[in-house]
Structure formats: C-alpha cells, structure tokens
Design brief:
Blueprint: H1 3-13, H2 15-26, H3 34-48, H4 52-88, H5 92-106, H6 108-114, H7 118-130, H8 135-164
Helix pairs in contact: 1-2, 1-3, 2-3, 2-4, 3-8, 4-7, 4-8, 5-6, 5-7, 6-8
Transmembrane segments: 52-78, 140-164
Domain VTT: 36-158
Keywords: Cell membrane, Membrane, Transmembrane, Transmembrane helix
Length: 165
C-alpha cells in the first residue's frame, strides 16, 4: 500500500480508517509500516482540520487493542508459536531473545523503551505474553510507549502538512 492510497483512504474514511490501518500495523501485518502510515495520517489530519489529539487517541487505542490481542495469543500459545517462528525465520531468534533479556533486565521501563525501538516494538507483545508478564504493567508501560511513538510520527506528518502542503 503506497502513501497516496493511504492518504486517499484517510481522507475518505477518516478516523475509522486511521483506527483500522494502525490496528493492522500493530498486529504486524506485512507492508504496513508506521514510518509511512502515521505521517500520512498526520498530513491528512492537518489538512482536514481533525484535532491532532483525537487522531492520536484513536491511534493509541488501535495500538493498545492490537497489542492486547498479540499478548493474549502469545500468553496461551507463545511457546509453540515461537518454535515455529524460530524454524521458519531463524534470524528472528536473536531479536526475540534480545527483547526478552532487555525486559528481564529493565522490567516495566524496558517495555516502554522497547516500544520506541523499531524491531523491538513489534516483538514486545509476543515476548510479554509468552513470558507471562503482568498484564497491568504491560498495559501501562506499553500504552505510554505507543503514545510517544505515535505522537512523534503523526506529529511529523501533521507539522509537514500544516506548514508545507
């Protein structure tokens, strides 16, 4: 999905599409990168007069709900899923193990920081669920990290759209 298509759908369907596309991005659907989706959303928000904080809230809600789904799936089925991932994609083992060790070392703050690292942010719900991290701690620190990440990317597009387009 290219940026023109994303912007067209965002313009046409507004917050509903924003929620859907960010929800899918946080579910790790291939081809949906935050670096494209969220700045495009910010541009549309700036041009359409939608309140930045409303768009940010919708994006955070989408990210948190998708993260819950991945957390719950990995809580119950994490080890079999990880075994399959390791067999099919052996290079991911290192990233997953690094994420786990980081969380093990830094605890809740590690969740927040990992949410701000491109590869780590996509792995953290799997790691937290598989290793049965406390869901309340996961929620609080993950939500803060999601809010920071989304705010940076959406605001980048918002500022660009507001000042240059």
């Amino acid at each position: 999905m290219n940026i023109q298509v994303i912007m067209e759908y965002l313009s046409r369907y507004g917050m509903m599409f924003l929620f859907l596309i960010i929800f899918l991005e946080y579910l790790n659907f291939p081809g949906l990168g935050a670096a494209v989706i969220m700045p495009a959303a910010g541009i549309v928000v700036a041009k359409s007069g939608i309140n930045f904080f409303v768009a940010l809230g919708v994006s955070v809600l989408a990210g948190v709900l998708a993260s819950y789904i991945l957390y719950i799936i990995s809580y119950y089925f994490g080890n079999p899923i990880l075994s399959r991932i390791y067999k099919r994609f052996p290079k991911t083992r290192d990233s997953i193990e690094k994420t786990y060790k980081y969380i093990e070392r830094y605890g809740n703050k590690g969740v927040l920081v990992t949410r701000l690292v491109p590869v780590g942010r996509t792995l953290i719900p799997f790691v937290a669920g598989t290793f049965r991290m406390n869901i309340l701690n996961f929620t609080v620190y993950s939500t803060i990290g999601i809010a920071i990440w989304n705010a940076i990317f959406i605001y980048a597009g918002y500022a660009f759209g507001y000042f240059f387009i």
